[in-house]
């Protein structure tokens, strides 16, 4: 685990502008990435593993600011490696199946922080006209199509989409204001 604490420190320093720390970080994670490629990259010829390693290191360099300092580094690195490996296999037309179970405990629960709680949505919808509120409720909250949402209101699918767009714009203005 000390290696991973060192990885976090190096990546943190790299994100603060320390070029040497970035180089050290990339050297430090390379053996772990090679291990992932050997374990999961059987669909690729071994001579392509180094090419994929370079793609992973480049992706890490370009996306390093997406790492959250309060999150573990190892799953972040492994996720990038898995995605690049899958991309490489797809380019070759090979199928690859990567299990997600080893990282399930560190993945965010999409239901943990809903973007808009139901009570808050109803408060916002009460601030616009009833027809617009009904459209937003039907399409954005219940998942109906524009055609399904517009029919009870006497609107064509196109008119329902226009009205929905205007309603969402009004709601956006309310939230900003």
Describe this structure in words.
- Helix content is 66%, strand content 0%.
- The chain is mainly α and 177 residues long.
- It has two domains: 2-106, Rna Polymerase Sigma Factor, Chain: A; 118-176, Orthogonal Bundle (Arc Repressor Mutant, subunit A), CATH 1.10.10.
- The model has no long low-confidence stretch (mean pLDDT 81).
Tags for this model:
66% helix; single chain; Rna Polymerase Sigma Factor, Chain: A; mainly alpha; 177 residues; Arc Repressor Mutant, subunit A
The CATH homologous superfamily of the largest domain is called RNA polymerase sigma factor, region 2, helix turn helix motif
Please tell me the total number of domains. 2
What is the element string, with H for helices and E for strands?
HHHHHHHH
Overall pLDDT score: 81
What's the N-to-C terminus distance?
47 Å
Count the DSSP helices: 8
Shape estimate: elongated
The CATH class designation of the largest domain is: Mainly Alpha
Q: What is the number of strand segments?
A: 0
Low-confidence spans? none
- Content of β-strand: under 5%
- Main sheet summary: none
By helix and strand content, what is the structural category?
Answer: mainly alpha
The CATH topology of the largest domain is Rna Polymerase Sigma Factor, Chain: A
Indicate the CATH architecture of the largest domain: Orthogonal Bundle
- Helical content stands at 55-70%
Question: What radius of gyration results from the CA coordinates?
Answer: 24 Å
